[in-house]
């Protein structure tokens, strides 16, 4: 439990960095653009690549920044391009997603195993359980009617998202950008 509180304290300190604020804003803009290019399979099933810039924020700046960024991006995306009703539970999911990835990845080596673990935790808790629950209230459909197609999508996207993010992290690390962002390259 102490390690979690230390991670949160260190992540909160990131808010004092202009580098953190500007980079999260830049990645937020990229996320909005990628989110507008999403594919709507059904009204309740969407595929988007906006997860990539979001996960970089969670990975680089931790659970506190990640949670607030996730919630802020959910609200901003809804304002810019609304799709359906606004639901605070879905904003809570975005917050929890940032916290999960921040706790698992912040200040740790980004191995494929660690990324996969973060993806599994987020997929089960947020995508399959919480998101499906919130959608039952928004759609009037039962949890068990929504769950199977969402589980299938999650199983298909899990390895794709894991490999894409791992590849992106390794590419960023190879360029030296991560060192600059963490303040060790200047």
Automatic annotation (TrEMBL):
InterPro entries linked to this entry: ECF_S_folate_fam, ECF_trnsprt_substrate-spec
Gene3D superfamilies: 1.10.1760.20
Transmembrane feature ranges: 20-37, 57-80, 86-106
GO MF assignments: transmembrane transporter activity
Keywords assigned: Membrane, Transmembrane, Transmembrane helix
The organism's place on the tree of life at top rank: Bacteria
Protein name per Swiss-Prot or TrEMBL: Putative membrane protein
């Amino acid at each position: 439990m102490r390690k979690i509180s230390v991670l949160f304290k260190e992540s909160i300190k990131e808010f004092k960095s202009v580098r953190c604020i500007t980079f999260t804003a830049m990645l937020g803009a990229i996320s909005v653009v990628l989110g507008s290019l999403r594919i709507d399979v059904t009204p309740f099933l969407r595929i988007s690549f906006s997860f990539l810039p979001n996960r970089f924020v969670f990975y680089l700046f931790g659970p506190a920044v990640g949670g607030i960024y996730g919630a802020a991006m959910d609200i901003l995306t809804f304002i810019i391009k609304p799709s359906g009703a606004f639901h605070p539970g879905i904003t809570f999911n975005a917050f929890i997603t940032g916290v999960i990835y921040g706790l698992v990845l912040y200040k740790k080596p980004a191995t494929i195993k660690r990324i996969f673990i973060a993806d599994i935790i987020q997929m089960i808790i947020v995508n399959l359980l919480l998101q499906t629950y919130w959608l039952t209230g928004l759609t009037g459909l039962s949890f068990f009617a929504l769950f199977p197609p969402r589980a299938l999508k999650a199983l298909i996207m899990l390895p794709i998202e894991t490999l894409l993010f791992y590849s992106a992290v390794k590419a960023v690390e190879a360029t030296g950008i991560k060192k600059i962002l963490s303040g060790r390259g200047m």
